[in-house]
Write a structure and sequence with these properties.
Structural class: alpha+beta
CATH superfamily of the largest domain: Winged helix-like DNA-binding domain superfamily/Winged helix DNA-binding domain
Shape: elongated
Order of helices and strands: HEHHEEH
Helix content: 55-70%
Number of strands: 3
Radius of gyration: 22 Å
CATH topology of the largest domain: Arc Repressor Mutant, subunit A
CATH class of the largest domain: Mainly Alpha
Number of helices: 4
Distance between the termini: 53 Å
CATH architecture of the largest domain: Orthogonal Bundle
Largest sheet: 3 strands, antiparallel
Length: 89
């Protein structure tokens, strides 16, 4: 979320968490491997940049399950309404 606002160095990201710089670097490396961020060297620093398109596959996956559960909940709602009509009718 912090990288949404602006690109940051590892040190800048670390300032937002109560974990070590090494732990933050591990997390950033995983995000980079997942193509959710890109990293560019600038002198001795590494600048981390959010890659919004990398989140598309995550969004697509979540949307699939949202649709799945929406359909199941709608089926449940209909079943409950049918049951109520049958028992109250």
């Amino acid at each position: 979320m912090h990288l949404c606002a602006r690109d940051m160095t590892i040190g800048e990201v670390t300032e937002h968490f109560s974990i070590t710089r090494a732990a933050v670097k591990k997390h950033l490396t995983i995000l980079e491997e997942g193509q959710l961020i890109s990293v560019q060297a600038s002198g001795r620093e590494r600048i981390n940049h959010l890659e919004p398109l990398g989140l598309k596959s995550v969004s697509d996956w979540i949307n699939h399950f949202n649709q799945f559960w929406d359909e199941r909940l709608l089926d449940l709602q209909r079943a409950v309404e049918d049951h109520e009509r049958t028992n109250n009718g």
